Automatic annotation (TrEMBL):
Source species of the chain: bacterium enrichment culture clone consC
Protein name: PuhB
Database matches in SUPFAM superfamilies: Metallo-dependent hydrolases
Family matches, as InterPro entries: Metal_Hydrolase (IPR032466)
Length: 208
């Protein structure tokens, strides 16, 4: 949404690193309290015709451009959060020193290697887990939702391995603040216990 981009949306992917720095610095000067960086793209979730599935992911920026963003965030004193959906993007985020690894368990179709689990544990990064319980997964499958694919393997194993290794864990939600109601067309099964809505059912989810 345009109101959230403030000059640092998809446009950044085409700019040289010095211009990326200037855009990010201007954005941070507006008083935002964190910087979320797209290390992985979001193509699998945005193509309406579904011509791309959960079988690919691309890194959105070069390593130097990512380093520029992190440098600006550190200079502004705000935490860095990274969006990733692949093993290599997750590895890059740890190397960058991200404070929060958003849905770290989502590495499309690939189990997180043990070396990377150990690397996350040894780092100062917190692994955000966007976990889905079996009842909700079944509801997603029943209505033919593509999101059901994110509720099984290897994502559940990724969660268990991170927890077993004593990684620093946060529970994530991709709720965001959309400009339209994404919940309006959900089936009753999906509405019963939706983990991405902050409200009464948010607390219900923590108990289920």
């Amino acid at each position: 949404d345009a109101m959230f981009e403030a000059g640092v949306g998809h446009q950044l992917s085409l700019l040289p690193r010095n211009e990326v720095r200037a855009r990010v610095r201007d954005y941070l000067s507006r008083g935002v309290d964190m910087l979320k960086i797209a290390v992985s793209d979001h193509i699998v979730f945005t193509l309406v015709d579904r011509s791309v599935g959960f079988d690919r992911s691309y890194q959105a920026f070069s390593r130097p451009a990512l380093e520029v963003m992190v440098e600006e965030a550190r200079a502004a004193g705000v935490p860095v959060l990274t969006h990733t959906v692949s093993v290599e993007a997750l590895d890059t985020s740890v190397d960058l020193g991200a404070d929060v690894l958003i849905h770290a368990n989502y590495t499309l179709g690939q189990q997180i290697p043990n070396y990377l689990i150990d690397k996350i544990v040894a780092s100062d990064s917190w692994a955000g887990l966007q976990t889905v319980h079996d009842q909700h997964r079944q509801g997603l499958e029943d209505v033919g939702s593509r999101a059901a694919a994110l509720a099984g393997e290897p994502y559940a194993t990724n969660e268990r391995n991170l927890i077993s290794a004593n990684a620093k864990i946060l529970l994530n939600t991709d709720a965001g603040c959309p400009s339209r109601d994404h919940l309006a067309d959900l089936s009753p099964v999906e509405r019963e216990d939706r983990p991405w809505t902050i409200g009464n059912d948010h607390f219900h989810w923590t108990q289920s």
